[in-house]
Write a structure and sequence with these properties.
heterodimer; A: 248 residues; alpha/beta; 6-stranded mixed β-sheet; 4-stranded antiparallel β-sheet; 10 helices; 10 strands; 40% helix; 25% strand; B: mainly alpha; binds adenosine-5'-diphosphate; binds magnesium ion
């Protein structure tokens, strides 16, 4: 469980996050949704410590992450996996080396144990035979899967995904969503996905946080969101033709 | 005012490089890889430039020596000292600022804009230490060898040019390059080389590390890396020369 308590964040004069509080549950896929530029990525980056919050705090199962220094954060960092919007695979390394990288840098496993773990993770994301390829040689969907494999290599308690579906076709998006749901359940992780994909909202919106202009605007689940009665939420949810059609 | 911002951030960046390495063996392997990419891959261009520099210095010196009282072996001496004191360390390092500096800045800049650096940070890895420190150590270690090779090849180039064009007999040239040789000049050149190697790697890494934006900004960082390293090499060339030789 991760708790965000009264977090504010700005860049210079510009206030991006305004007093956001929310609780992200364990063993669930928690969604952060909102329009482009609403501050979703900034919130996620504050949570993982890539940005420092201006005020408020982030708690990982009661541990106050915001007050820790680089060294104190290390144990928590190793419990965090993150899937970046553009996958962020290391260009100079093969698929196998990418997944092995956190194990090599941070664990004391033997070579055999590392290889086993890499094989397990790549198998888990259904990529059993791409070990020797470089990121430039594989498709966007495959990159996402390698990135997921790398993110779960260290067996994280917390998994963050920044727009896991961006740049993917609808079918591949569903595959990635399902994969994330399955591993969340399987490893009992606290998963946080930041998305504006309505399909993801409908299929895994157990706990949805809707951000609007940097504020917590609404929260609830996928049932409630369809009849929230909140104009900004409705505008977001029913923006597409297909959703408008379904509404009627 | 902006320069103070950059100076401050540059020093913080330098301080951040010296965090405790996650795994020593990995840093060692990274240093070796970087030596290969910075050093070995530059051998060709360094040799090519040096041989022509040596040749041109030799021929020009002969051409400028109109006074018959000056013995011909002076040409060898001039070629030797020009290569050792100035051309090998400074020109070669300026060329490396172009070649190595732009590649470091664009490599690190690309890693920044594609969130690969964030990915390292998330894992709890000291990203600047992991990416930059090995490059710096490798460059500082390998650059003196490149410059020594450049001196040797340059002086040999002068000899070949003198021979081919017939402007100076071999015996004179060889007498010249041995005449009143000061080993300290080589030490002096090595001091400059090490400082320049540090400037190139630290400035280029800094430019890459703080790239903000996309592909366009990576290109701009890369250009700035080359320009700033070159200018600072020239300034430090002057400062070091004044400090040590006067
Ligand atoms: N590093 C930064 N410096 C300044 N402004 C930023 C930075 N990162 C994001 N912003 C601004 O914060 C706002 C929210 O961005 P972001 O969280 O990326 O939106 P999204 O909800 O689409 O992920 C945007 O207006 C963006 O310009
Ligand atoms: Mg975003």
């Amino acid at each position: 469980m991760i708790e965000v308590k009264n977090v504010s964040k700005g860049f210079g004069e510009k206030q991006i996050l305004k007093n956001v509080s929310h609780r992200f549950e364990k063993g669930k896929v928690n969604l952060i949704i909102g329009g482009s530029g609403s501050g979703k990525t900034v919130l996620v980056k504050c949570m993982v410590g890539l940005f420092e919050v201006d005020s408020g705090r982030i708690e990982y199962d009661g541990r106050n992450f915001s007050e820790m220094n680089f060294k104190e954060r290390k144990p928590i960092r190793q419990e965090i996996g993150m899937l970046f919007q553009g996958s962020a695979l290391f260009d100079s390394m093969t698929v196998e080396q990418n997944v092995m990288f956190p194990l090599t840098m941070l664990s004391d496993l033997s070579q055999q144990e590392k290889t086993d773990r890499v094989n397990f993770c790549l198998q888990r994301v259904n990529l059993p035979s791409s070990h020797k390829l470089f990121p430039a040689e594989i498709s966007g969907g495959m990159k996402k899967r390698v990135a997921i494999a790398r993110a779960i290599a260290m067996n994280p308690k917390y998994l963050f995904c920044d727009e896991p579906n961006s740049g993917l076709d609808p079918k591949t998006s569903i595959v990635i969503d399902e994969l994330i749901m399955e591993i969340t359940e399987e490893f009992q992780m606290t998963t946080i996905i930041n998305t504006h994909d309505m399909n993801s909202v409908i299929t895994m919106g157990d706990n949805i946080l809707f951000i609007h202009k940097g504020e917590k605007w609404w929260s609830g689940n996928e049932q409630e969101i369809l009849k929230s009665g909140n104009p900004e939420v409705d505008e977001f949810i029913f923006a597409s033709k297909i959703m408008q059609h379904l509404r009627k | 005012m902006k320069i103070f911002f950059h100076l401050g951030r540059y020093w913080l960046f330098m301080a951040s490089l010296f965090g405790k390495p996650e795994k020593f063996s990995i840093y060692r392997r990274r240093v070796l890889e970087e030596m290969e990419s910075i050093g070995v891959s530059s051998l060709g261009i360094v040799s090519l430039i040096s041989v022509f520099m040596g040749a041109v210095i030799t021929i020009q010196t002969v051409y400028n020596l109109v006074n018959p009282l000056v013995p011909l072996y002076v040409v060898g001496l001039v070629a030797r000292d020009t290569m050792i004191i100035e051309f090998s360390p400074t020109i070669i390092m300026l060329v490396l600022a172009g070649k190595v500096g732009s590649s470091i800045a664009s490599e690190i800049g690309t890693m920044r804009v594609t969130e690969q650096i964030d990915a390292l940070e998330i894992m709890g890895i000291n990203s600047s230490g992991y990416l930059v420190f090995p490059k710096m150590i490798a460059a500082i270690f390998i650059a003196p060898f490149l410059v020594l090779i450049s001196m040797f090849v340059g002086i040999a180039g002068g000899w070949v040019a003198g021979e081919l064009s017939g402007v100076i007999p071999s015996t004179d040239y060889i007498k010249g390059i041995q005449y009143q040789f000061l080993p300290f000049n080589v030490t002096f050149a090595m001091i400059k080389t090490v400082v320049f190697a540090y400037l190139i790697t630290s400035i280029s890494s800094y430019q890459g590390f703080y790239t903000d934006g996309g592909a366009l900004e990576v290109g701009q960082s890369s250009t700035r890396a080359v320009v700033y390293s070159s200018v600072l090499i020239l300034i430090f060339d002057y400062i070091i020369t004044q400090l040590i030789l006067i």
